[in-house]
Design brief:
The protein contains four helices and seven strands, in the order E-E-H-E-E-E-H-E-E-H-H. With about 180 residues, it is α+β, with helices and mostly antiparallel strands.
C-alpha cells in the first residue's frame, strides 16, 4: 500500500482502460463523513452539500477528458467577524489526462516543439499511470479553487473589525511612528 499522496475524501477512481465512446458518467454525492473531511481539509466550518457530476470520455488516441460540474453548499468563517458565512459553489470541472508514456505529452518538451499555453484556455494535460484516474480528487481540486479565500458577512467591511472606534492599535501606532507619519 502506498501513502504517496493523501487520498481525497471524495476519491473516485475511474477505470479508463476501456471507456465507452459516449463516456463514463460519474456522480459523487458526499456523505456526512466525506463532507466533514472536506470541511476540515479546506478549513471550512461545514459542507452541507457536495455533488460532482462528471463525464469521463476518451480523448485523442489514448488520452482521457474529464468534464462536468461540482456543486456544494458550504459555511465559512467571516474573515472580519468570524461569524458563519454561507456560500454556494457551482464550478465547471475540466481536465485532460495522457498516459505517462504518451508521445503527445513529451513532444513539446523532447521534440523541441513549442507548447502554447493560453491562460484562459484549458490547462495542459496531466499524466496518469496504469488504467485509472481519480476523478473525485480532480473534482475536489476545482471545488477548492472555487472557495472564496476571504469570505465576508454581508455588509461587513474591514473597518468594522475595529471595535474601539478610531483608536489605533498599539501595532498601528508603532508602525506609524516607524514610518514617521503622524
Amino acid at each position: 500500500m502506498k501513502h504517496a499522496d493523501p487520498q481525497s475524501p471524495v476519491s473516485f477512481v475511474a477505470n479508463v482502460a476501456r471507456l465507452p465512446q459516449k463516456g463514463l458518467p460519474v456522480v459523487i454525492e458526499a456523505d456526512a463523513a466525506q463532507r466533514a473531511a472536506l470541511a476540515g481539509e479546506h478549513e471550512l466550518l461545514s459542507v452541507e452539500k457536495y455533488r460532482a457530476e462528471l463525464l469521463v470520455t476518451p480523448w485523442k488516441r489514448n488520452g482521457v477528458k474529464v468534464s462536468g460540474r461540482v456543486e456544494a453548499d458550504i459555511t465559512q468563517a467571516c474573515i472580519v467577524t468570524l461569524d458563519p458565512v454561507a456560500a454556494h459553489i457551482d464550478e465547471a470541472v475540466d481536465g485532460l489526462f495522457l498516459p505517462e508514456q504518451s508521445k503527445l505529452g513529451r513532444q513539446g518538451f523532447e521534440g523541441g516543439g513549442e507548447i502554447l499555453l493560453d491562460a484562459e484556455g484549458p490547462d495542459s494535460p496531466e499524466t496518469f499511470s496504469g488504467n485509472t484516474i481519480d476523478v473525485g480528487a480532480l473534482a475536489e481540486q476545482f471545488f477548492g479553487l472555487a472557495i472564496d479565500p476571504y469570505p465576508r458577512k454581508q455588509g461587513v467591511s474591514m473597518e468594522a473589525a475595529d471595535d474601539a472606534g478610531t483608536a489605533e492599535s498599539e501595532f498601528q501606532q508603532k508602525l506609524r511612528s516607524l514610518l514617521g507619519k503622524s
